[in-house]
Amino acid sequence: MRLTTAALPFLSSAAALRSSSNGESAQPAIVPKRVAIIGAGAAGSSAAYHLAQFAQDSGIPLQIDVFERNWHIGGRSTTINPWFDPDQAIELGASIFVDVNHILVNATKAFNLSTNNRENLLANIPEVGIWNGKELVFTMNEGGWWDLAKLFWRYGYAPVKANKLMRETVDKFLQMYERPHFPWRSLSDVVQLVGLTEATGLTGEQYMQNKGIAPKFANEIVQASTRVNYASNLGTIHGVEAMVCLATNGAMSIAGGNWRIFEHMLSSSDYISTHLNHTIAQISKQADGTYNLTSIAGRVSSFDEVILAAPLQFSNLVIDPAPEHTPDEIPYVKLHVTHFTTPHKLDPLAFGLEADKPVPEYVLTTLQVDEDYGSKPNVGRAGFFSISIVSSGVNVHASKPRSEYIYKIFSPKRIDYQFLSRVLGLQVSKEEAEKGDVDGTISWINHWDVHSYPYEYPRVTFDEIKLDEGLWYTSAIESFISTMETSALSGKNVAQLIVNEWNKQAGESSNGEDMKIEANWDSNPWNNAQKPIKDDL
Question: Which of 4, 26, 89, 227 has a 20 to 30 Å separation from 453 between CA atoms?
């Protein structure tokens, strides 16, 4: 067990040698393991949550410090408030999770969180339409018999084959949650062991073609899904991620924002302290194997283990000396997300419809048959990846309060007044397109540019999870599957690997006996009070 200078202020008097009441020789108290987690998104929150659980199950005392450079928990899972109304919380980034996302679903139940079960906001109009820049090639409502008939009429048995392939792919992936595969020390190895290397090594187009799925269905339905979820065409995204886009059964979100799952994870244990607005500038490995973390304010803290729970390439971190394994710098999508509010529906004429035909609530997009996939990718003549009505509300700031729709657009570039004027069929000024006008066509608008996820190009090897002794990396999973759930899974996996190593060290230190560390929880200083979430300004 390591004892570092930085840990000394946290130890109670029980850490000193003292005589017992019966006069026996004094015994040193066990020093808690100290773990730093950099990033309070899905991966970091899950790592802290599961590490606290696994360590307690093994009788290992510890202190976990989570450092987040932003003011909020959740990373890319955060919300925005139209009209700056706190009662209106709209997902800014990751919007939903699904039934097979076991970690998020179980956490939702454990924390007794309410979910949003979204119903159509507009009656008697299609729910989903797929636009190729010229026409809506397919529309559907809520999957009733008429939608099924239209699917079979246009695509034959391709939807059935694709659904079967999706289920087979997801079943293979779910093996990564269970023994003998979990926890996995190598992502490359476990992907091969569960039988997914073929799918990750091919594009979605190649993978589906090899499985006999008709190109028309792949290029229209599946590609619309890969574009809305990953801003990627089917010829550039690997096969596993393409299948993930089809796994939508039981879609749900948390009332008030999905970030609340991660907030509850970080508040679940007395042994977790979360430091917001706290940027770590440098990680320095010491001669004794511990790590010193230096904040941009110059504060230095010492830890036994460090979990880097954010993409290294965006962290501006200096790691000294360089770790044994340095993650690849991989290309990320620069996505433009626009939210705006208006009392108006989309203009049918802008989507090739007759004036009296309604535009679907969700407009997804695909390429026309003569358009290339591109590598970054090509957004095509559609000009955007998706536009949808995500909610509705009352604009109380208008001179006369009015009900309005809340729209969300994913696009490869910033949305301007010309685009908004075209899709609404109304004149939108430059000022409205930038700032909104409470009484105007656009009453409120928000532009957000984000490195949302990697370009999921085909590959069969992935970054290392363990960068060095005591230094771990959760974002290795990003180029395999990038979702809230897989980030949470990566955090859980790292947590189990760390505790397994601690148990192994404890066994070796006891002359080979298989034993666990027995903690004196009564003397643990962190057992006496709930650790607050700290806002370090």
Answer: 89
Provide φ and ψ at 181, rounded to 5°.
-85, -35
Distance separating alpha carbons of residues 6 and 4, to the nearest angstrom: 5
For residues 366 and 347, give the distance between their C-alpha atoms in angstroms, rounded to a whole number. Answer: 19
Burial class (CB in 10 A: 0-12, 13-18, 19+), 347: middle
Cα(389)–Cα(404) distance, rounded to whole angstroms?
Answer: 10
Residues pairing with 36 in the sheet = 65, 306
| Common-topology check for domains 5-76+257-330+460-535 and 125-155+332-454 | no
Which band of pLDDT confidence, cut at 50, 70 and 90, is reported for residue 31? confident
Query: Counting beta carbons within 10 angstroms of the beta carbon of residue 167, is it exposed (0 to 12), middle (13 to 18) or buried (19 or more)?
Result: middle
Residues in a beta bridge with 410 = 337, 386
Specify the fold of 125-155+332-454: Polyamine Oxidase; Chain A, domain 2 (3.90.660)
Encoding tokens for residue 396? Answer: 């109380």
For domain 5-76+257-330+460-535, is the CATH number 3.40.50.150?
A: no
Question: What distance in Å separates the CA atoms of residue 397 and residue 273, rounded to the nearest whole number?
Answer: 39
pLDDT at 286: 97
The answer to whether residues 104 and 488 touch, using CB atoms and an 8 Å cutoff, is yes
Cα 245 from Cα 229, distance rounded (Å): 7
Q: Where are the domains of the chain?
A: 5-76+257-330+460-535, 125-155+332-454, 156-255
Range 276-288 burial, b when 16+ CB lie within 10 A, else e:
bebbbeebebeee
Query: Quick check: helix, strand or coil at residue 518?
Result: coil
End-to-end CA distance of the chain: 33
Cis-peptide, bond into residue 321, ω within 30° of zero: yes
Residue 457: strand, helix, or coil? coil
Predicted local confidence at residue 116, as pLDDT:
83
Return the structure tokens found at 136.
Answer: 């809506």
CA distances, 277 to each of 2, 353, 391, 450, 534 (Å): 29, 49, 30, 19, 9
Look at the chain and count its residues. 537
Q: What are phi and psi of 106, to 5 degrees?
A: -65, -40
Q: 374-408 b/e with 16+ CB inside 10 Å = b?
A: eeebebbebbbbbbbbbbebebeebeeeeebbbbb
pLDDT of 283 reads 98
Whether the predicted model's global pTM rises above the 0.85 cut: yes
CA–CA gap between residue 366 and residue 436 (Å, rounded) = 29
